[in-house]
Amino acid sequence: MDSSERGGRINPAEGRGSSAIFPFLPNKAPAKVNLYLHVTGRRPDGYHLLDSLAVFPAIGDVLSLRTAETLSLTITGPFGATLAAEPDNLVLRAARLLNPRGGAALTLEKNLPVASGIGGGSADAAAALRLLSRHWNLKAPLHDLAVSLGADIPVCLASRPSRMSGIGEILQPAPALPPFGIILVNPGVAVSTPAIFRARQGAFSPAAALPKTWPNAAAMAEALAKLTNDLEPPAIALAPVIGDVLATIRALPNCLLARMSGSGATCFAIFETAALAAQAATAITQPGWWRWGGGLYEPAPQDL
Asked: Mean pLDDT, 10 residues at a time, over the chain (304 residues)?
């Protein structure tokens, strides 16, 4: 099992070079999971309004830098080849927005599937804003810059459980969450977010009424089961394998809730503990399916 499949907390020092090579400690870009996602309306400009509860599992990409006179980006990791052909991805766009003339040699270790509904690109851009603002000693309005880059990037800046509204840029603290485990499963297909929104049918959903806390993972899963991901039905219609993923993870022992995240195709399931989730992930053996299981991300000081 490689580093993209292990459960538990991301280790800031694991597999990294010395501080002489990377004078700024690598910055984590954890996955973002929408435990529910209601489409509550639509703005005149066409952007959809959302209500969602986002959490961050302890698996993600890693961004590192070396001092350099010009800006560059090297992409590695199990999903790096997918992004290698992109001349101007979100990491570079974030860097240029922060400091158009700034130099740094960036390395992105891409551990998350691309276009998979778990905010990989947004998390990478957020990591770039955090890391480079310190490297260049800038006091920039990172939230405002994040909003201008993409609606998911503000929540990824803090990488903490959050209630999202507006188009995703309005953030409030999440309810106090009990300990729980989570698995992520992606069937190896990329889906188009705009296509999913275009395929969505029916009325808009109301914002959810959430408590201040849940006593345990089972109570949280029971409450979340009464909510929905409004993008799940159109995503399954466009990519039926998402339904296969959901059926597979719902059948796992000790699964409390299974649902698609974001616009897909990654799905998640909630378990009582991180250990149960890590164990459950090993049962996913379908060829071409990426899977991970563990607990939630705990930011280290350099990741904030």
From this structure: 36 35 74 98 94 98 96 95 79 96 96 94 96 95 95 95 96 97 96 93 96 98 98 97 98 98 97 98 97 94 73
Is 152 marked active-site?
Answer: yes
Domain boundaries defined on the chain: 24-303
Element (H, E) at 64: strand 60-66
The residue annotated as part of the active site, out of 32, 110, 230, 303, is 32
Out of 2.40.50.140, 3.90.190.20, 3.30.230.10, 3.40.630.10, the CATH code matching 24-303 is 3.30.230.10
- Indicate if 2 belongs to the active site: no
Active-site hit among 51, 61, 152, 230: 152
CB within 8 Å of 12: residues ≥ 6 apart: 25, 26, 28, 300, 302, 303
Closest CA to 104 of 77, 63, 145, 73: 73
- Is 260:244 a contact under the CB 8 Å cutoff? no
